[in-house]
Inverse folding.
C-alpha cells in the first residue's frame, strides 16, 4: 500500500513512528486541544465529507484514504485518551475505503511492538483488522443496519430456505433450450433427496458469481455447470454424490460456494476420466498426469489442514483477528491456499481460483511458500505417489481398463476356480456351510490380492507426481543494427 503525501496537504498522511514520537504535524501534539467527541457515531461519519472533517479534527489532512489507517494507529499510541474516538473514525474509514490485505500488510508488523509501547494503538489495529468488529450505532437496533453489510447466508437450512425455484427451473435457467439434451423433463429430479442443495448452489452461482465475473471466467463457469448437469442427469450414482457435495457449498460466503462447486466438478471429472479411458480417448500417460494433479491437491489439503491446526494451537500468541478468522471459517484459508497455488503446483483445472475475497484467510506470503515447498517435497517421494494411486478408485478402475491383457486373465482364473462347481450345503448352519463360505472367501481374496499386486507393479512405473516444468520462453531475436523490425514473439504456451 503506497503511503505518500496527500496532494491536498503539506503534511504527511502516514507519519513514521519516529515522526510520531517527535510530535510531527501529521497528528496532534501531546496536549493538543483535540477532545473526545461525545456520542460521535460511525454511522454519522459514513459520509466522506463528514469523515474528512473528523480526520482533520484529529490532525490528519486530505480526503479519506487507506493511508490514514496507519496515521490513526500511531495517533492512538501517542494519545490513548482519544482511543474510542479513533476507533470510530477507523470504522467509518473502513466503510468508506475498505481494508484488504495491503492494509493488513502495513499494520500487522506493528501490532506486537505497539502492545508494549502503545497498547491503545495495538487495540486500534485489532479493531481495524478484526472481521468480527462491531460497528457502533449509538444504540440503534439491528433492524436499522444498512442493507447488504451482512451477506452471510447463515446455516445450511437458512440458505436452502432462500431457494427461489426448484432444480428443474435452475437447469432451464442455466442451459435454456439445451436442457433437453440433458433430460426430457428437467423437473424429474426435483423431489430427489439433496436436489434442493444442488438447485440452491446453481442459483447462487448465477446470482453472486456471474455478475462480477470476467467474460472468460463467465464462460468457464457456464461450461462447468453445463458439464455437471449433463453428467449428473445421466448417472444416478454421480447425481447422489453431486447433491451431497452441494450441501457443503451452502450456508457460507461466496468463496465457500466456489470451493464447493470446485468439489462438484472434481467428482464430475472423475466420471469423465473413466468414460474417456473406456472409450479409448485417454491413454496411460494422460491418466497419470491427471492423477498427479489429484495427488498434489490432496497433499495441499493435508498440509493446509495441518497449518491451520498449528495456528489454532498458538492461542494467545496469534493476533486476535487471525484467531477470529480461524474460528469463524477455517475453510476460507484452505480455499485461499488452493487458489494461490493452483498454477504453481499444477492442480486440477477445476480447483477454485479467482477468489472474490481473501479477507477471511490467515495466510501470509511465507505460509504460501512453505506450503508450496512442502507439497513439492512430498510429491517427489515415489512411495507416497504409489500409495495414493493404489487408494484412488478411479485410477484403479482406469488401469484395469487400459491393461486388459493383465487383468482379464486374473478374472478368468477367479471364475475358473473349482469352487464355482461346488453346490452350497442345504444346512446353512452346518460346519460344511462354514467351510463352503471360507472357500468362497479365499477365492475372492486371492483374486483381489493378484489385482493389487498387478496394480502395485503398474504404480511403480507411473509418472506425473510432480508438476510439469514451465515451458521455456522462445529465444528473442535482438534484431539488426540497421533498424530492421524485430519479429513478433511467439505467444506463450
Amino acid at each position: 500500500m503506497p503511503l505518500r503525501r496527500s496532494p491536498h496537504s503539506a503534511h504527511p498522511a502516514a507519519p513514521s513512528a519516529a515522526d510520531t514520537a517527535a510530535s510531527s504535524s501529521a497528528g496532534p501534539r501531546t496536549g493538543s486541544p483535540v477532545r473526545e467527541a461525545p456520542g460521535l457515531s460511525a454511522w454519522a461519519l459514513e459520509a466522506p465529507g463528514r469523515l474528512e472533517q473528523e480526520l482533520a479534527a484529529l490532525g490528519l489532512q486530505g480526503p479519506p484514504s487507506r493511508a490514514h489507517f496507519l496515521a490513526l494507529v500511531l495517533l492512538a499510541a501517542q494519545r490513548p485518551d482519544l482511543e474510542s474516538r479513533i476507533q470510530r473514525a477507523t470504522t467509518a474509514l473502513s466503510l468508506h475505503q475498505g481494508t484488504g490485505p495491503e492494509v493488513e500488510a502495513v499494520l500487522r508488523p506493528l501490532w506486537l511492538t505497539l502492545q508494549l509501547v502503545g497498547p491503545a494503538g495495538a487495540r486500534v489495529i485489532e479493531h481495524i483488522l478484526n472481521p468480527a468488529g462491531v460497528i457502533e450505532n449509538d444504540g440503534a437496533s439491528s433492524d436499522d443496519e444498512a442493507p447488504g453489510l451482512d451477506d452471510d447466508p447463515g446455516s445450511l437450512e437458512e440458505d436452502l430456505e432462500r431457494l427461489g425455484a426448484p432444480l428443474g427451473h435452475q437447469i432451464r435457467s442455466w442451459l435454456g433450450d439445451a436442457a433437453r439434451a440433458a433430460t426430457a423433463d428437467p423437473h424429474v429430479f426435483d423431489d430427489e433427496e439433496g436436489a434442493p442443495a444442488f438447485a440452491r448452489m446453481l442459483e447462487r452461482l448465477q446470482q453472486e458469481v456471474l455478475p462480477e465475473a470476467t467474460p472468460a471466467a463467465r464462460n468457464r463457469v457456464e461450461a462447468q455447470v453445463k458439464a455437471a448437469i449433463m453428467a449428473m442427469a445421466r448417472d444416478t450414482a454421480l447425481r447422489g454424490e453431486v447433491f451431497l457435495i452441494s450441501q457443503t457449498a451452502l450456508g457460507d460466503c461466496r468463496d465457500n460456494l466456489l470451493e464447493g462447486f470446485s468439489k462438484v466438478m472434481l467428482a464430475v471429472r472423475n466420471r469423465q476420466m473413466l468414460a474417456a479411458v473406456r472409450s479409448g480417448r485417454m491413454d496411460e500417460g494422460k491418466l497419470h498426469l491427471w492423477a498427479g494433479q489429484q495427488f498434489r491437491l490432496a497433499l495441499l489439503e493435508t498440509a493446509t489442514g495441518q497449518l491451520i491446526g498449528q495456528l489454532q494451537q498458538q492461542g494467545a500468541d496469534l493476533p486476535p483477528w487471525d484467531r477470529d478468522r480461524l474460528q469463524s471459517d477455517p475453510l476460507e484459508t484452505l480455499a485461499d491456499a488452493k487458489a494461490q497455488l493452483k498454477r504453481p503446483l499444477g492442480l486440477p483445472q477445476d480447483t477454485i481460483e479467482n477468489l472474490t475475497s481473501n479477507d477471511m484467510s490467515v495466510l501470509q506470503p511465507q505460509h504460501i511458500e512453505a506450503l508450496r515447498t512442502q507439497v513439492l517435497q512430498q510429491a517427489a517421494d515415489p512411495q507416497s505417489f504409489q500409495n495414493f494411486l493404489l487408494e484412488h478408485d478411479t485410477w484403479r478402475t482406469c488401469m484395469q481398463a487400459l491393461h486388459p491383457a493383465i487383468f482379464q486373465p486374473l478374472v478368468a482364473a477367479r471364475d475358473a476356480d473349482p469352487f464355482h462347481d461346488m453346490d452350497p450345503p442345504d444346512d446353512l448352519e452346518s460346519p460344511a456351510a462354514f467351510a463352503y463360505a471360507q472357500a468362497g472367501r479365499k477365492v475372492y481374496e486371492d483374486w483381489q490380492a493378484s489385482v493389487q499386486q498387478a496394480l502395485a507393479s503398474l504404480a511403480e512405473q507411473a509418472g506425473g507426481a510432480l508438476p510439469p516444468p514451465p515451458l521455456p520462453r522462445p529465444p528473442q531475436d535482438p534484431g539488426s543494427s540497421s533498424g530492421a523490425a524485430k519479429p513478433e514473439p511467439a505467444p506463450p504456451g
Confidence is low (pLDDT under 50) at residues 1-44, 131-151, 480-493.
